[in-house]
Amino acid sequence: MSSIEISKGxxxxxxxxxxxxxxxxxFSAVMKFMKPEMMDQMHLGDWRIIIGIGEFVxxxxxxxxxxxxxxxxxxSSYMGGAIILHMIKPESIIMPSVVLVLIWVVGYLRNPDLLx
Length: 116
Fold this sequence. Notes:
It contains five helices and no strands. It is elongated and about 45 Å long. The chain starts with 7 loop residues before the first helix and ends in a 6-residue tail after the last helix. α1 (8-34) crosses α5. The protein has one domain (8-111). It is 75% helix and 0% strand. 21% of the residues are buried. By secondary structure, it is mainly alpha-helical. The chain has helices spanning 8-34, 36-41, 48-63, 68-88, 94-110.
């Protein structure tokens, strides 16, 4: 439990960004189930179910207050993999990098001692 008092504005900002990121990840996970050809293009078709479930569970862990630290680490790992895939293709890494930064912003807003 953190001993640092978190302001109301900070809590609201964290919830808004976390909600948007969670919606993004849930949408992405659903698309992995509904549009398998997207994962086939990246040669990950055989892994799409596992990746989709992992993404969905990680997003929910990230959203929930009691498990958001674990969710932050899991989504960070997931985005690290996404950045690597973008680098291999080669595609721009700006979008996955921005999402990764937002994950850590929310992690810090919710848990100021996360970086200690």
